[in-house]
Amino acid sequence: MRRVTRSVEQLALFGGTPAFSSVLHVGRPNVGDRTRLLDRIGDILDSRWLSNNGPYVREFEQRVADLAGVRHCVSTCNATMGIQLLVQALGLTGEVILPSLTFVASAHALAWQGLTPVFCDVDPVTHNLDPARVQELITPRTSAIMGVHLWGRPCDVDALDAVARRHGLVLIFDAAHAFACSHRGRMIGGFGRAEVFSFHATKFVNSFEGGAVVTDDDGLAERIRLTTNFGLSGPDEVALLGTNAKLSEAAAAMGLTSLDSLDEFVAVNRDNWHAYRAALRGVPGMHLAAFDPGERNNYQYVVVEVDEDRAGVSRDQLQAVLLAENVMARRYFHPGCHRLEPYRSRDPHAGDRLPQTRRLAGRLLVLPSGTAIGRTEIRVIGEIIRLVVGSVPTVRRRLGSVMRGAVAGG
Ligand code: T4K
């Protein structure tokens, strides 16, 4: 499965054999109990009820709502649609303030509804919206603030709530990363007017594709539920402009099977996170994003901030070394939404007000985790990083010639 890499010359980037014969991914899906899943799928096929608010969808929604500690969960085909339906049901207009340091879906979901995403800088430590910066971006056109609980670590909910109240704005959360996480002992899902979870394949609990809007607001939940199903309020009755954003029974079966193993997935993720911490201990310039041990965390994202001044190599150089070893480390969320289209063209100078976002987008590296990998793989990844950082002059020289070779070759 792996080859021990003892010297820089043996690194795959410089011609050696990759440390891993098969690729290690960020977000390799957790599968859970296959027999249980196939039993559920069999049941769905026998019942011939495949979609449209079937029993598995209802059970999934109930279990998600219970876990999040809210009255309502409306499942959706993915979180992107969940955010779209939420902002539509809230009747938001104009501008919505959100971080740029997030997956582009957060911004796209708003733009798709005709809203203008206004990108705000983040706190350098939490990587979440900086409430003071939010305050500065409020204009007469602002209708809402959308926090993103990045990596599953909660936003500064209280401060954002205070800003929103002061200015009469709606507060919502993209909680795509934060299912089964808590903030001050309260489960994420119950903050703001509503929150949106993702159950995409790469999330620790997945329904193949899927999402959910969770809220304690009865009217809002009802509107979103109607919208997911064409606005149909009866067999021949349509109450509002709807679409099709339903979760299928097969997806709910996967979601339920995933929920059955939630504790096990979290335990594996927690173990992996601790294994990374041990593997990277004392390596200069490698700062592992931490989770509050007093809260519930899903530990799904293992995020390292690479400080080039201390490590001697940049985040991108380290990523190049790891990719060659078949470690598919990701630069989430480089370069920040503000530098992606269509946002870059609309506001080319947005980066001027996003210094922390720019800094983090150049330094963060997300490492493989989940049930597909374990301590052995993590120890090897740690050894590779340690070797690279411990042999900086040679690595930099070799990296230079690799890059010159790549240019010469085409
Ligand atoms: N808000 C935030 C903050 C989000 O992070 C996301 C999604 C959303 C909203 C929207 O949620 P959804 O609408 O998707 O429910 C992935 C996911 O597609 C996306 O769901 C996720 N965030 C984002 C962080 O990551 P990519 O383009 O990086 O995915 P991809 O295809 O490169 O896959 C990631 C890794 O996982 C790869 O190394 C391959 C591996 N993989 C992936 C899939 C799908 C597998 O091994 N098996 C698989 O089935 O976006």
Walkthrough of the structure:
With 410 residues, the protein is an alpha/beta fold. It folds into two domains: 8-28 and 262-329 and 368-409, Aspartate Aminotransferase, domain 1 (Alpha-Beta Complex), CATH 3.90.1150.10; 34-260, Aspartate Aminotransferase, domain 2 (3-Layer(aba) Sandwich). It is 40% helix and 15% strand. It has 15 helices and 16 strands. The structure holds ligand T4K. The site of ligand T4K has 23 residues, from helix 3 and helix 4. Ligand T4K is lined by residues 25-29, 78-80, 102-103, 105-106, 148, 174, 176-177, 198, 200-202, 211, 328, 332.
Helix content: 40-55%
User: Which superfamily, in CATH terms, is the homologous superfamily of the largest domain?
Assistant: Type I PLP-dependent aspartate aminotransferase-like (Major domain)
| Low-confidence sequence ranges | 406-410
Distance between the termini: 32 Å
Strand adjacency order, main sheet: 2-10-9-6-5-3-4
The description of the largest β-sheet is: 7 strands, mixed
Number of domains: 2
The structure class reads alpha/beta
Strand content: 15-25%
Q: Radius of gyration, rounded?
A: 22 Å
Q: Count the strands?
A: 16
